[in-house]
Write a structure and sequence with these properties.
Pfam families: TetR_C_8 (PF14278), TetR_N (PF00440). This protein has helices at about 5-20, 30-40, 40-50, 50-70, 90-100, 100-110, 115-130, 145-165, 170-185. It is an all-alpha fold. The protein is elongated and about 65 Å long. The longest helix has 21 residues, at about 50-70.
Length: about 200
């Protein structure tokens, strides 16, 4: 069982890192600054981490793990192989991100955004390949790998936009809109006429 003091110390270091990232780029943050701002001592930091990079890596991995758990939650206690549409809802993922919005919005507005989004994208792709199966019309020749890449890439773009615009929709609203997008395709797409 993890010592509560360890959990508390790690949370303080994590929160301190987020606070500092709001003010400066990660490359300009020092371990000494993290220690001083956290009001904990150097030995406590080095009991848990070898470097600021270790702290950042753990912080990102914790958030990706949170998304992973939120993704898998609808599948818990399911007696059906084929899940109803509402059990495929991503509301739990959106709720998790919203509950931890300080971390997500800070990291995604920093130079770390691409690396963090890549980690989330990799988890979504893994989920799409290993936890879901897809039933298409028998006449369909869709490439499932490309289908998963397309869907998960669209999802990561939607999430990044939602966070980047300071959460203009609640998790419930975003989930409902995404559900409508998934089941609704335009009958036609046309170019707007250009005035000469």
């Amino acid at each position: 069982m993890t010592d509560k003091r360890v959990i508390r110390s790690k949370k303080v270091f994590n929160d301190t890192l987020v606070t500092l990232l709001k003010k400066k780029d990660f490359s300009k943050i020092t371990v000494s600054e993290i220690i001083r701002t956290s009001d904990l001592n150097r030995s406590t930091f080095y009991q848990h981490y070898n470097s600021k990079e270790d702290l950042l890596k753990e912080a990102m991995e914790n958030e990706v793990e949170g998304i992973k758990q939120a993704l898998y939650e609808p599948f818990q206690n399911s007696n059906s192989v084929v899940l109803e549409a509402d059990r495929l809802s991503l509301i739990r993922v959106f709720e998790y991100i919203y509950q931890n919005k300080k971390f997500f919005s800070t990291v995604l507005s920093s130079s770390l955004a691409i690396d963090f989004l890549k980690k989330i994208h990799e988890e979504l792709i893994y989920h799409g390949h290993h936890n879901l199966t897809y039933s298409f019309n028998p006449a369909s020749t869709v490439n499932v790998d490309l289908y998963i890449q397309y869907g998960m890439s669209a999802l990561i773009g939607l999430i990044a936009n939602w966070i980047g615009n300071d959460f203009p929709y609640t998790p419930e609203e975003l989930s409902k809109e995404l559900s409508k997008i998934i089941v609704t395709a335009p009958e036609a797409v046309s170019f707007l006429s250009k005035e000469k």
